[in-house]
Amino acid sequence: MIHFDLPKEKSSILKVIGVGGGGGNAVNFMFSQQIEGVNFIICNTDAQALANSGIPNRIQLGPHL
């Protein structure tokens, strides 16, 4: 049997990932609402859109496109 060292209190890990312009806009709005306990991530090919976001977790897709 496999045993995992999980916290005594059950907790969820929530990550919201926005892809592209529309996804980034939606995640930026949620981030601005200061929702606690959620990790926000945006992914985009547009480096400028990523740079203008306040979200700390940003992934540039296809930087050589």
Helix content: 25-40%
Strand numbers in spatial order across the main sheet: 1-2-3
Strand content: 25-35%
The largest sheet is:
3 strands, parallel
Please tell me the total number of domains.
Answer: 1
DSSP summary, beta strand count? 3
Rg from alpha-carbon coordinates: 15 Å
Structural class category:
alpha/beta
Shape: elongated
What is the CA-CA span between the terminal residues?
48 Å
Element string (H = helix, E = strand): EHEHE
Number of helical segments with 4 or more residues: 2
Contiguous runs where pLDDT drops below 50 for at least 5 residues: none
Round the mean pLDDT to the nearest integer and report it: 90
Which helices and strands appear, and what pairs or packs with what?
Blueprint: E1 14-19, H1 20-32, E2 38-44, H2 47-51, E3 57-60
Parallel strand pairs: 1-2, 2-3
Task: For the structure shown, list the relevant keywords.
65 residues; alpha/beta; three-stranded parallel beta sheet; 3 strands
